[in-house]
Amino acid sequence: MSDKYNDKYRLSAEELFHTCDLARFEFSSTADLEPLSTTIGQERALEAINFGVEMPHGSFNLYVMGSSGLGRHTLVRDALKEHAENAHPPKDYCYVANFKHLHTPQALEIPAGTACKLRADLQGLQKNLLKAIPAAFQEDEYQRQHQEIMDDIASKKDAEAQELEAMAVDHHIVLKRGATGFTLVPQKDGKTLTAEEFERLSESDQGELRKSMDEMKGVLKASLGKVPQWQHEIQQRMEVLYRETVALTVSQFIKSLEEKYKEFQAVKEYLSALKTDIIENAELFQEQVAHKKELMASESTFLNKYTVNILVDNSETQGAPVIFEDNPTYQNLIGRIEHVARWSVRFRCNQNLYP
């Protein structure tokens, strides 16, 4: 090729470099500019990605393949971000106690932000009940009903004793009540007889008195047989009063929570089971005060089963979360549960070994 031809198509150094008039731009650097909302020249790829992202069902996967440097991650991330901003936040997940089977906790699926509120409400409930349950048994109404039961049983005992005393008089027997029980003493002409005076009586009088004594012993034995029945009655009535007092106290505090979470059936069922369990174990709340332990629910071991264990908290999540996992192992994708072993050692001494 001739030099004349080469000179015709030869470019100078100035012609190889294109300069821009910076005065035409209204920004100082590209950092001041908004990024492009779409990727240029990837219409089919964008349509495929959007189709996969907007799939309204689960169990689907989107696989993106391409050479390095093509912006695959950016493309997918932007598509996911745009779709996630308009999606509803995922629900909260928390564990609560299954009071029928404590070793198999119950999982609650509740709207985003509800788990933290539920945990705070139950912590407040625990603190309130630690004070309210012991205080309920100091109220005048409980004391009045308690005394009413005791007076009722005492009146039955007095009536029974008076009936025995009247029967004893008819049988010429004196019925004496002591600290250890009843004593039968024969009498003659309205006078209590000593052992020597009884021996000086005629055989017929002694026989009649012995017969009366035997009859009264049988009646007294039958009467004393009613004592366990009265004690059982006292115990039953006290248990009913105890449960009614606890149920009224606990219900007052849980009622507001039931109203607050009435739209969530799973929470309502849990609160109902919670109320029943607290009523059945109310003595633990009393022991906490009786032993002069500090009324801090967070430090009370027996209150652990009334605590909400939050697994997933989406209270601050905006839209649907986009999670990047560079190492998609089974545990990283599905999750895992780690158990904490708690060991307790108890010592028991045989009292016979010590003086």
Fold topology:
Elements (H helix, E strand, L loop, with lengths): L2 H7 L33 H11 L18 H14 L6 E5 L9 E5 L3 H23 L3 H31 L2 E5 L4 E7 L2 E2 L2 H5 L3 H22 L1 H35 L4 H16 L1 H9 L18 E4 L17 H5 L21
Antiparallel strand pairs: 1-2, 1-6, 3-4, 4-5
Helix pairs in contact: 2-3, 4-8, 4-10, 5-7, 5-8, 8-9
Strand content: 5-15%
Work out the helix count. Answer: 11
Strand order of the largest sheet: 2-1-6
Into which percent range does the helicity of residues fall?
40-55%
Major sheet:
3 strands, antiparallel
Radius of gyration: 44 Å
Order of helices and strands: HHHEEHHEEEHHHHHEH
Question: What is the arithmetic mean of pLDDT?
Answer: 78
- Please state the structural category: mainly alpha
How many β-strand stretches?
6
